[in-house]
């Protein structure tokens, strides 16, 4: 099978037939696009570098994704390079565009290689695209070495942690499994799927409703009990117990014109009063229910 299977032959032919650009003409086209947004200049510039996109995409064909999609993503990277290219730096466009093409293709592979998203940091990308190659190389040089030693050498070579290497190796060694995949069959002919073994730790619907009703009931009781406090008790309880930023005894004492010890005493008395009211109401509700 050709490494370009999946790409239109006409597209490949057009890309290979595009003329190479001289440095001067390339700079001229880049300036036209950069300063005047000349789309004709952009078309000539990018068409001349589509062979670079195809070549780069073919290097990533072993990741199980359609080569046509890789070429498309590489083309997006090429357009991004054209948008960011600065002709004044006197650098060949192909040298600059190569990085953007590779980055775009790699990002696409990371997003689509597995339904489980992997890390997108530079270290994780380096691990994903280099782990298998380095692992094989090190294993050939030291065939009797243990796996931990190999992973340590990979971590050192790529500048990442040993844990990251172990996690990425586990991901690359496994494959995605559908939750609808059958794992057995019953006597009645029904099929047991893998997803049926997953445990949902979320509360059941009746538990959610019960918790919500209990919360509303307690909230109503608290608001009713707070109405039994006098204004000074209510102010202290609200500032000390019902506010995210609790006020200090000293600040409340200055506000109310009393000592902080007196504030503490009023707070304690108010809390006891609330507790008594809440318990009395609770016991009355139980008695009424029974």
Structure notes:
- The chain is mainly alpha-helical.
- It has helices spanning 9-17, 23-36, 39-47, 50-58, 67-84, 93-112, 122-141, 147-158, 162-173, 205-226, 231-241, 249-256, 260-289, and strands at 182-185, 191-193.
- The chain folds into 3 domains: 1-113, Four Helix Bundle (Hemerythrin (Met), subunit A), CATH 1.20.120; 115-175; 205-289, Arc Repressor Mutant, subunit A (Orthogonal Bundle).
- Helices cover 67% and strands 2% of the residues.
- The protein has a two-stranded antiparallel ribbon with strand order 1-2.
- Helix 7 packs across helix 8 (147-158) and helix 11 (231-241) packs across helix 13.
- The longest helix has 30 residues, at 260-289.
- The model is unreliable at 286-290 (pLDDT under 50).
Label this structure with key terms.
single chain; Four Helix Bundle (Hemerythrin (Met), subunit A); Arc Repressor Mutant, subunit A; two-stranded antiparallel sheet; 13 helices; 2% strand; elongated
- SSE pattern, N- to C-terminal: HHHHHHHHHEEHHHH
| Straight-line N-to-C gap | 80 Å
What is the CATH class designation of the largest domain?
A: Mainly Alpha
By CATH, the architecture of the largest domain is named Up-down Bundle
Give the DSSP E fraction (strand runs of 2 or more residues): under 5%
Radius of gyration: 34 Å
Mean pLDDT: 81
Largest sheet: 2 strands, antiparallel
Total helical elements: 13
If you consult CATH, what is the topology of the largest domain? Four Helix Bundle (Hemerythrin (Met), subunit A)
Classify the secondary structure makeup into a structural class.
mainly alpha
Number of strands: 2
Tally of distinct domains: 3
The coarse overall form would be elongated
